Amino acid sequence: MSKIDFAKMGGLIPAIIQDHETNEVLMVAFMDEKTLSSTLETGKTWFFSRSRNKYWMKGEESGNTQDVVEVLTDCDYDSVVIKVKQNGPAACHTGNRSCFYTRWENGQWVEHSNPLFDPEEVYKK
């Protein structure tokens, strides 16, 4: 783990999360040394939330956890791709399978949202 250059990116590196079978990009989050270490040790994905300024394990509230299958880094050692088995129907907090459901079409962003769960019900906000 010492090869990962957290300092270059201000202490956080981007983590691209992919379905290990389909390679579908499920989400992008940020990791620091502690969350990458926790991910490697536990086999579950851990991240640092910049908006909430806290550590979190994917699925700790929703139950939609991720089992780590493979971890790769890029040639500069400043980002990671984590291939996972997605437990539960969705990786996105909006209830969608992937966070990437909005597409640029004909000069505008168009949502192709198909929630698999109701976030209001799951997160009780």
Number of strands: 8
CA-to-CA gap between the ends?
Answer: 37 Å
Q: In sequence order, what are the helices and strands, one letter per element?
A: EEHEEEEEEH
What does the radius of gyration come to?
15 Å
Tell me which CATH architecture of the domain at 7-89 applies here.
Answer: Roll
Q: Any idea what the CATH superfamily of the domain at 7-89 is called?
A: Phosphoribosyl-AMP cyclohydrolase
Question: How much beta, percentage-wise?
Answer: 35-45%
- Catalogue the unreliable spans: none
Strand order of the largest sheet: 2-1-6-5
Structural class: mainly beta
Question: What is the C-level CATH assignment of the domain at 7-89?
Answer: Alpha Beta
Overall 3D form: globular
Helices, by number, come to: 2
Q: State the CATH topology of the domain at 7-89.
A: Ubiquitin-like (UB roll)
Biggest sheet architecture: 4 strands, mixed
If you average the pLDDT, what whole number results? 95
> Helical amount among residues, as a percent range?
10-25%
